[in-house]
Amino acid sequence: MNNTVAAQTATQIIAKIKSKDFKDRLNAYDDMLNLFSTLPDGNAPEFARLSPAFEKYLLVDIQPANKEKALQVLMVFLDRAGCLHVPQALPAPFITDLTTCIIENCLSGRDSTKLKAIDCLLMLVEVIGPDTILPCICAAAQHKTPKIATYSIFTLKEVVRQATACTNEGVGDDHSINIE
Fold first, then answer.
1. How far is 153 from 141, CA to CA, in rounded Å?
2. pTM higher than 0.85, yes or no?
3. Cβ-proximal residues to 148 (8 Å cutoff; 6+ apart), any chain
């Protein structure tokens, strides 16, 4: 996909995302997923251009099907966007706002939405690093909505589980300590 076509597609996506019709928004999310999947370069300007749409439009969509598709798009974005892998490429407030938006809007919905939201949060911890993401999750563990607090704690448990799984790779099954 050449740069001109990608820029035109991004402009069309932005227009559809702002639509009041939920089907138009869902189609825009599909288009966005396709765009992110087919861009040959992770540093393409479309990643940075469309990144604000997550917290402003996609993750706050009231339609559950749209929200799930938005989380699917976010996973591809997190996986492919080169701007996330360069320190200071995206401002820290954007990452914090995105994390808070995922927690506030996606951890209290359908079970499938919660699982995708947790996967996105885990991917953020992996890609961005725990220093920015974990304080947001810890703050949400004291949220006034019980579902959000519960799933924030579950997400913290998953972060710890994945971190210990990474540190235990290569360690044999024998975890005994020999003291002589």
1. 6
2. no
3. 103, 104, 107, 108, 140
Closest CA to 71 of 11, 117, 129, 118: 117
pLDDT in tens, 46-88: 887 888 888 888 888 888 999 999 999 999 998 888 766 555 5
Residues 6+ apart with CB under 8 A from 42: 80, 81, 82, 83, 85
CB 121 within 8 A of CB 155: yes
Closest CA to 124 of 163, 91, 61, 75: 75
- CA dist., res. 51 & res. 32, Å (int): 11
Task: Sort 122 into a burial class: Cβ within 10 Å, 0-12 / 13-18 / 19+.
Answer: middle
Domains of the chain by residue range = 1-89, 91-167
64 Cβ contact list (under 8 Å, min separation 6): 109, 110, 113
Query: Tokens representing 82?
Result: 């080169």
